[in-house]
Amino acid sequence: MKRLRGWTSSCTTKVDTTSRLVLYGTSACHLCEQALALVQASLPQNWILEEVDISDSEELFERYGTTIPVVKVEHSARALNWPFTGQQVSALLAEEVGQGEGGD
What is the C-alpha end-to-end distance of the chain, expressed in Å? Predict the structure, then answer.
């Protein structure tokens, strides 16, 4: 199951909807619930959070089954395996924005 949660600013005229963070987990994972709350608190308004239940895909279950929750920047190799902090999530997103703007 995929769920999108978007935070966009109502006063912004141009919203970058390509900035997407994926949270891999399962519905029965209490750590995933903790990670969701932490990520929601750390996610800038111009990012979209997509929750993906790995139990819906054999490939994803094989890849992430022992490491969930995992947050990953879509279309990037950047990811964090649990345990992670809000500060680490913010740093991950800042790195991605810097790379997207030609930084580093």
Answer: 36
β-pairing verdict for 48-53 and 20-25: parallel
What strands lie across the sheet with 20-25, from one edge to the other?
2-6, 48-53, 20-25, 70-73, 79-81
The pair phi, psi for residue 59, each rounded to 5°, is -65, -45
What count of other Cβ atoms lies within 10 Å of the Cβ of residue 69?
25
Q: How many CB atoms lie within 10 A of CB 71?
A: 26
Interval 9-44: pLDDT, tens? 333 334 445 689 999 999 999 999 999 999 999 999
What domains can you pick out in the chain, each with its CATH number? 2-99 (3.40.30.10)
Concatenating the DSSP letter of every residue in 10-79 gives TT-SS--TT-EEEEEE-TT-HHHHHHHHHHHHH--TT-EEEEEEGGG-HHHHHHHTTT-SEEEETTSS-E
pTM over 0.90: no
